[in-house]
Structures are given as structure tokens and as C-alpha cells.
Amino acid sequence: MNLTCIMCPMGCELTATKTSDGYKISGNNCLRGEKFGKEELTSPKRIVTALVHTDRGVTSVKTSVAIDKNKIFDVMKEIDKVHLKNAKIGDIVIKNVLGTGADVVITKSI
Ligand code: SF4
To answer: Which end of the chain is more exposed for a tag (fewer CB within 10 A), N or C?
Structure first.
């Protein structure tokens, strides 16, 4: 199975081979690629970015860590409920969103 590593702009083409105890990854130029390849095939995760409304306009947020891909839409629905008076970069908008262990953090002051 072929994958593209998204952990840095190099975008290494990875090849995953099934083994008796998981997957063997090749084509990676560093250990992050090996970890990404194995995780992508067993429990894929992504950082979520989104926009939230404030009294002064729209600003951007992201999750503090990558969350399971199958929870992205539920997390987006939680983020969509947010309306702020103002926004300061680094402030936490939702702590431990849906028990994922990720905080939703403001990435742009407004
Ligand atoms: S394997 Fe390493 S060098 Fe290649 S894209 Fe992934 S993080 Fe970047």
C-alpha cells in the first residue's frame, strides 16, 4: 500500500507492507514518516482547523493536538457552536473537546 507522508513539506512516498505484527514502512526519510505510516493505517489522526464567529468578525482556531479522523465532524459541530466576544491568540475556546484530549485554541487575535 502506498501513502504520502504529510508530516513535513518533503512529502515522502511511503510503502506499507503488512507483517505478522503490524506494518513495515519504507520510503521514509526519517522516523516521523515511519510513525505516520503506521498510525495512518491503524488509527489515523489529524489537526483540525476551523473558523469561529466573534462580535468583531471571524477568527481561526485549531486543535492543540491531532485527533482521530473519525471524530473530526463531531468536533467541527462543537466548534460551530462557539461565538466569542473577542479572541486572543493562544486562548482556549474548548478544553478537551469531546474528551479527545485536544483543546481548541485561537490562532489569530481579533
Ligand atoms: S518521512 Fe520524514 S522527511 Fe519524509 S515527509 Fe515524512 S517527516 Fe518529512
So the answer is: N
Say how many Å lie between the CA of residue 109 and the centre of ligand 1: 31
pLDDT tens readout for residues 79-97 = 999 999 989 999 999 999 9
List Cβ neighbours of 1 (8 Å cut-off, separation of 6 or more).
15, 16, 17, 41
How far, in Å, is the centroid of ligand 1 from the Cα of 106? 27
Ligand 1 centre to CA of 110 (Å) is 34
pTM for this model (two decimals): 0.80
Domains of the chain in start order, with CATH, are 2-42 (no CATH), 49-106 (3.10.530.10)
